[in-house]
Every structure is written in structure tokens, then in C-alpha cells.
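[Meeting: bench + compute handoff]

Bench side (C.D.) handed over the final construct sequence. Compute side (W.E.) agreed to return the predicted structure before the next meeting so the bench team could plan truncations. Sequence as handed over:
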Amino acid sequence: MASLIDTINNPQDLKKLRPDQLPALCDEIRTYITACCSRNPGHLGASLGTVELTVALHYVYDAPHDKIIWDVGHQAYTHKILTGRRQAFLKNRCYKGLSGFPRMDESPYDAFGTGHSSTSISAALGYATAAALRGSSEKAVAVIGDGSMTAGLAYEGLNNAGASDTDLLIVLNDNKMAIDPSVGGLHNSLLKLTTSSRYNRLKLKTWKALGTSSIRDGIQRLVKAGKRLFVKNSTLFQPLGIRYFGPVDGHDVIHLVNTFKRIRNLKGPRLLHVHTIKGKGFFPAENDQATWHAPGLFDVETGNRVSECTPDSGKKIKFQEVFGHTLLELARSNPDIVGITPAMPSGCSLNIMMKEMPERCFDVGIAEQHAVTFSAGLAASGLLPYCNIYSTFMQRAYDSVIHDVAIQGLKVVFCLDRGGLVGEDGATHQGAFDLAYFNCIPDMYVAAPMDEVELRNMMYSAQDKRYKTTSIRYPRGTGAGMKDWRQPFRYIEPGKARLLNEGTHIALLSLGSAGIMGAEAVAKVVEKGISVQHYDMRFLKPADEEVLDYVSRNFAKVVTLEDGCLIGGLHSTVSAYMAGRSHAISKVTGLGIPDRFIRHGSLQQLYKECGYDVQSIAQALEDLVR
């Protein structure tokens, strides 16, 4: 018997199936996603949890005419498979293959590009409003997870939607099973009643007949009170003007189809609350949801992750782990230190300190702006916050850094994880801009360690009163591979570079972990007789003007190297310095992220594309000298 999944090339093919065939299709999709992700890593758990929900949405709604907008995009793998990308999904997140997230330029079914959380409601409201203005029949659906509902943008969208009569459906994908009571027969009966077309026609006729009478108002208050008695979550959405339905079982695809059919033609903003299980159908992913959010390579049969199958006692330590262990060390000796993260305690390794000092660590949920202003309040009270936010997510809190921290002269140590290119997550997650966007803020230090020891020492030094508000940025993953990284702390003077290699032909000024590749390239060209003076600048701001002055007087050719955008970063800083010095003899060549958004691929592929992998750096040095 042919597989059902092989017959589905678009949502129109899906609609040809009988409802009783949908559970079998869901099983096939779940197996396919698991098999693909085992060989080609991706965000597994969230997408396993939304198989039935996605099938039901596409079975009832008419995409791409109707707009289905996925929040973040971790949960959209089934969506990609059903919309003509089943074969291409084998290369999901691969270089020049499918993006791991919805992209408008990838498919007409991707109504809105997503990567950061909590944007779906606002975007869907925009679509719904435009449809109303044009008199179009298209529907707009936002699918948002319970985690994404912690961000302020989601509530801004809800507030705006509730103040209108816009035809908008919000699907709240809730995969935390303990939040609400289990779905029961009584609740399902209430759901069928409130979504029934006959019920809603009768309600509308009755409301029109009653007009604005006190009887109507009394009945409405009684109905709302009755719903609150059974559905406590309605008290969150009803006051905003959004009709609440649910919760429903997100893994009963036939029931979901019937529910969407009932709710599709209702008017005004409404929310359907759906319970799902993250990792559904694959026991390891259900049993350890945090690890299996993005597990890497794994064996489908055994459930063993490849990293667990081949332990290596000599493996390189990650910058994230160095941060976590170092912060705990510092906190043991400095009672003023506190740690803050927006929903990334394990990703950034703040969980290391959390285990020993939970009262001094704060996971504020997906709320970067709040994390920054909360840190500002802690700093104003005399504490020393180490606020860890991924570089790309810090963009969302930029106003708070300026307005609430920098202008007020409050000392917060921002530890920016995932600085620079991050690989397969693509353009929405590349940490390309933090060096540039912090460089222009007055009274702020911008630092980037080249290796593990430098990260430790920068975190240690940032406590000192000579440091102002400081950003310490470092990349995802491993560094130089130092086994002896737990060295005694050493103070680093703000704005002080270090000389890595002496030379006479050309100067290389590197910033951050890109200097590791720079050092390898220098070693290559030295073997060919090219003499390179290599500095690890350490700080973008304040820059080491003593080094810049020396270089400007003694080197006609200078190369800057950074894992960040060239505009506004080290290249811009060094070029501006040289241009302002009449004695400068230097011509400055910049290696870093060019002025475009960098898509997904392995780090080595992306470094090469951007022209600053080891070979490209070495070639640039050779070309300039010869």
C-alpha cells in the first residue's frame, strides 16, 4: 500500500483525503520528520508536537489564499512538508537548502518570515486588517506557542486585536500540560456549543433583538461568568476583547478539523487554546523535552544522541560553559553578582549558577527588553547584574540598553552569547550587528575575547570600578580548545590590546574569536616568508589608540578581522582613526560580514562565503603583500 505522505504535494492534495485517513498521515509525517532530523539536525521536539495541528489547519484553511503565520518557526516542519517541500526537507538547514524557519521568499505558503518569537499575532493582524480594507475573503491565522506569549510584543498584538472587530484567529499552542485542567467531556460540549454556527446565528439574532438593553447586558455577564467558571484562561483573553475557545486536545486531528471548521467563519478576534506534547510520538523527545528541542544527530532506533554515543574526554569546552562556570566562581566571592537570562538558562549555561544559587539567578522568559530594564533596576539598587542575551535577541532590547542603562550610567555587564555567525539557524539568528550597534552608545565598553581564558578574565575585570557598562560578546560553540582554561584570574585594562605575533610587512588587527582563524592564517603565510604583526584588539570600544597610532605610522597595509558586520565594527573604527591622522600611511582592508543578510549553512561554509575562513584570510594577506 502506498504511503499517504507520498501523495501530498500541496494542501489541495491533503483535502482529497477522508478525515479518517488523517491520523495515519500524521503518523507518517511524524516518522518522516524524526528520520530526517536524525541525519540532518534541526528543531525536532516542537515540530513533532504540532503535526496534527498543522494537518488540521491546512485541511480546513485554504493556504496560500488564507494566511497561516507561525511564531518563531520551530514548529513549522509539518507545514513545509505539506506545502511542496517534502523532498527538499531532506536538506533542511543545509547550505543553499531549505531554511529551518518560514521565509517569504522560499514559498508562497510562508506568509511571514519568522525566527524571533512573538511576532505572529501582530503580523496576522496586519494581514487581517489589510483583507478587511480590500474586501478580501482571505483568513488570517497566527499560531503561537505558550513560551512566546511571555514576550511583550505578543500582548501588544493581543491588545490591538481585541480593540477591533478584525477577523483573526490566534491558535495558542500550549505544550506545558500542567497549566490547565485536562480536557473533559463537559468542556468539549461547551466548545461545540460556542463554536456552533447555529448557536452563533441564534446569538446574533437575539443580540440584535435585545439591542442595548439591560437584559442583554445581564445575559452577557452571566454567560461570561459561566465560561470563567469552567475555563479559567478565558479571564486573560476575554477582558482584551478576544473570544476564548478551548483548551482542546492538539493530537486529536479529527476533532481539531471539526473545531477549525466551526470556528473558521466566526467573526472578530478569537483564540483557540490547544494542548500539545512537545516531542510527541518519539519517547526520548517526550521524556527530555529541553534536550530534544534541537538534539543534533541521533539514532532513531536507540534514541541515543551521537554526542552521547562517542564521548570524548578531551573535547573542547564551549564558550557558554566557560561563562557559566566563571560566573559561579565570581558570584561565590562577590555577593552583589546576579545572573539574568530571557528563557535561555541551559543554552547560555546560567543553569550552572542556578543549581547552586537559584535565588541569585533570574530566568525572565522570552522578554529581552524586560531582562535589560530589570537588570537596570537591580543595578540601581547596588547589585551587579550579568545579563546574558543572545546577540540577535539583544536587538529587541536595544532601546532599553540606551534609555534605561546607558543614559542613567548604570553598570550592567551584558554577556552576548552567539556573537557572530551561528550557522544553520540562518539570517534571523546570525549575531552580525552587536559590535556595531553597541559601538555608537556613549559611555559603554565593547569587548570580545579571543579565547576561553580571555572570556574569564574579561568577566572578572568587568567587576572593577574602572569598567563602565560593558558588553562582552563571544561566539556559539567551542573556542581555541584550551584544556587549561581554568587559570587564575588576571585583570585586563579597558581598551588594551595584546600583541600575538611580531612582523614587518603587514599588520593584522583582529577582534574576538575570529583571531583564532587569524592566527592560523598568519602561521600559514609566515611559512611563505610574509611577516605579519598580529594584534588581538580585545576591545572595539575603547580602542587601543596606542596600538592604532603605532600601526598607522609603521604599516602601509593593515587588515582588520572580525566576526561581525564591517559597517560600524572594527573596520569602520580603524578606518576612521586612520582617516583622522595626517601622519597615517595605512591602507585598511576589512575582513568580516559584508553588507547583506547571511543565510544558513555550516560555519565553515559561511566563513568562506564571507571571505574570512583561514584560507581566505591567508590569501588576503598574501595578495596585499605581493
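W.E. noted at the follow-up: Residues 177-187, 222-231, 308-313 have pLDDT under 50 and may be disordered. C.D. will use this when planning the next construct.
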